[in-house]
Structure prediction request, 476 residues.
Amino acid sequence: MNNLHFKDSFKNFLFDLDNFITIYDDTLHVFNFTKLNKLSDTEIVLRINNKVVYINGENLKIKQMTKQELLIKGKLEKVEFNYD
Amino acid sequence: MIKKEIVWIKIEAKSYYNILTKLSELGITIYDNKKNDDGILIKTSLKDYERIKKYLVSYKTEIVTSSGLLKIKELMQKYIVFFLSSILSIVILFLINSVIFKIDIKSPNKKIQNILEKELASNGLKTLTLKKSHSQIEEIVNTILDNNKDTLEWLEIKYDGLIMNVYVTEKTIPKEEESYDKCNIISRTDAKITSLNLYRGVALKEINDYVTKGEVIITGEITHNEEVKNTVCASGEVYGEVWYKVKVTVPYNEYYSKYTGKKRFNISVKIGDDEYDIFKSRIKNKRVKKTILYKLNDFAINFVEEKEYEESVRKLSEKEAYNKALKLAEDKVKLKLRENEAILYKKVLKKEVNDSTIYVEVFIVTKENIGEVSQILGGSENDSKPNNENNQ
Prediction:
């Protein structure tokens, strides 16, 4: 029963605890980010729980944004994680 | 589901990234954004716009365009006069269309016109009154027909725009054939008598006798010793064999139209004799069905349903063409037959097969009622008036 992670799955289903980043050619989709720390045309810094994500590139722009999600467009060069 | 009220707002600011960071901190949902010289355009919900206005007080914000209910509300406010006048026009149009402006009784008989005018008025159908529903009209028609069983045979009421057309057929009592005082029964065609039932008069012919068109079969003149003692109206039923020679040519190529399944709808405006389609019709070979949406005198708006048909050719085999020719020949004769009359025999006299057609000559024998009443005008049998219907 423990192997099925039923409790965790249910909690995640209810509260959307998982977070992920999907990278396309010129688009980056972030799900469940905590805070937008820095925003410029070359660098975007985000906090996702206990890690900080550095996104570097050119002409970076936020195409769509909700409380939890971000859709970043631009020429992506580097995505880096730093743990606290 | 009510559509979320989405607005495009303009925030007068120079730093795009600053504003986006602040909006992120406020948890604003952004569906799209653009940067131009005046500031930043953000596509967001009306609810979020209220929050932006509340928290970003140092920036000048305004709604540029909106969608959903808000858009409708804005449009309503802008074009309130147009909307109200359109609604009013539709209501007036509907009201006018629901009123009978003229009742047109399609009968030349003044007496019938008067009867119908009174009957319609007593059932609430007068000029400048509201139109009745189809079921009510049906009920009224039945009532009028019941009330005027002796004078009216058939009645139909149809609306044509603002005009109510009343189509009527008067009841006519058919003239009885035996209404003459003095008459003969003559043959209406050349034939061989097969049965003869005499009710009144004197039979001049017998079964198996050949008669020509107009020849007297039963005379109304009762003679004794070659002297006419009395003249009556002869009565009887005479059946005979009638012969036809029918020539039919059938082409091997049979043309027919087939519905392709392609259908288009259009609206047409008719002004007088001219009719204009609103949309360009892309169907070439079509059959059109029109439904009147609105009609006022010579002006009409029609809903047009166009169905595409393609012409196809089917090549008949010699046997199929031959059978078709025989059937056509039979049908040609059957058209002339009445009740209790039938085809007795048929024989193909000639068959010619050509490159593209087949020619058939058919001899057909029928059993027909050949007797016809003919009034005796002077006293001589030769004064009879036969009908000329037979085509041999």
Summary: The helical segments of chain B are 16-26, 46-55, 68-78, 80-97, 110-122, 134-147, 318-334. The mean pLDDT of chain B is 85. The interface with chain A takes residues 16-18, 20-21, 23-25, 27-33 of chain B (CB under 8 Å).
